């Protein structure tokens, strides 16, 4: 199952990588892809949406479902 969340504050490829790593650290996530231009992150797996948002915020970015 895939989910998409809105992520703001990414300004470079390193930011995308940081968001992806934060999301992939959430239990149930099998793969994550961040897109700074679209301000989104797409997540594969069965993680809870609130856990995804919290992980992105803990990495220093703004997120919403």
TrEMBL record:
Protein name stated in the entry: Heavy-metal-associated domain-containing protein
Region forming the signal peptide: none
GO molecular function, one term: metal ion binding
Domain HMA positions: 1-64
InterPro entries: HMA_dom, HMA_dom_sf
Organism field: Halosimplex rubrum
């Amino acid at each position: 199952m895939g989910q998409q969340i809105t992520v703001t504050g990414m300004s470079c490829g390193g930011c995308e990588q940081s968001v992806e790593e934060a999301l992939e650290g959430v239990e149930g996530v099998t793969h994550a892809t961040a897109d700074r231009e679209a301000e989104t992150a797409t997540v594969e797996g069965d993680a809870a949406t609130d856990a995804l948002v919290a992980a992105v915020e803990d990495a220093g970015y703004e997120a919403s479902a």
